[in-house]
Amino acid sequence: MRRRKPTEGFILCGIFFWTITAHLISTCFATQLEERMEIVRKVLKEVPLIDGHNDLPWNIRKFLKNQLREFRFGEDLRDITPWSTSAWSHTDLRRLKEGMVSAQFWSAYAPCSSQHLDAVQLTLEQIDLIRRLVNLYPQHMALVTTADGIEESHRTGKLASLIGIEGGHSIGTSLGVLRTFYQLGARYLTLTHTCNTPWADCCKVDEPGRVPHIGGLSHFGTLVVTEMNRLGMIVDLSHVSVPTMLDALATSKAPVIFSHSSAHAICNSSRNVPDHVLKRIAVNGGLVMVAFYPHFVSCGEKATLKDVVAHINHIRDVAGVDHVGIGAGYDGVNLVPQGLEDVSRYPYLFAELLESERWTEEDIAKLAGRNLIRVFRQVEQVRDQLEAQGMLPIDQSIPPEDILGRSYCRYSGPRT
User: Which pTM value belongs to this model?
Assistant: First the structure.
């Protein structure tokens, strides 16, 4: 029998040692992760996890033409076409429950190409779709329009479903349409999408070589924000230009939000929030709900859960822990970070944050939902104060010169 050389024995011992060590380290990390996950589950049982933006309603329009008879939302859509073959699909009831999501703002979206055409109709159809979807699953979902409603749904184990209008072009330059959307349940309006409106500049004008249309909000734009304050509708500044952000912050008497944006200092996308605005958000009492889209997180096509953590930590550092939340943007993106593949993965994000001693259970509770509930309640308080002061609905129309040459389909008769 061949005798091993001494060096061979040392090599075998080394391999054995490192194999055992790697196994022990792996086991230790797994144990620590599970301990953190238990803490997360405990927090999310006590506090609702609220996501600021999900584009599922537009996907239903794309794939099913808004027909819900064949939409099996209660099943795993990863096993059902066309959802199973789409990079844009990340959401179903099973995965929302697995992700411990308690409240979701569903986006009622109309593309920019519909501006001055049928944007109002498209948005109404999306609101109708959201309401019909909720009604199909009364055991699992509830339409919610108040901060108290979020907490009540959390107590009863139902997904609080809220409506957000994504894009100011959806109101058709009409405060009457804005008020009607509110009456139908919409609780935030994103002032622009990726197109200027006749009364507000979008984020695109901040890109190199682009020229602002207005330079922020027009006078009518400030009236939109003021009327939203009167209604109790949250002002959402995702997608708007930096001057529009500043004008809205100067106008609004209530806290504002960014429903799905990240930190410009880490990724200089025009969709993200610069530090000087983050500081104003802290003064305003508002909230930045961090988006997961890699192009907003890493400024590339690939990102990781840790990259999202970096944005959360940066916003916390600049604005404070009371002014950061979650607005993933699922179903509106075709790329997601590694580790945050769909709506089931939120607990892993919170567990990652708990790995740092700077994040406490109370901090996680604020990030998950308490911050948004505080903002919502303050928006409602401003509404109640303005009502007590006798403020009436604003009945001014947009000046005709503001839409001259941009109104392709508009009644030219008498106007109010």
Answer: 0.92
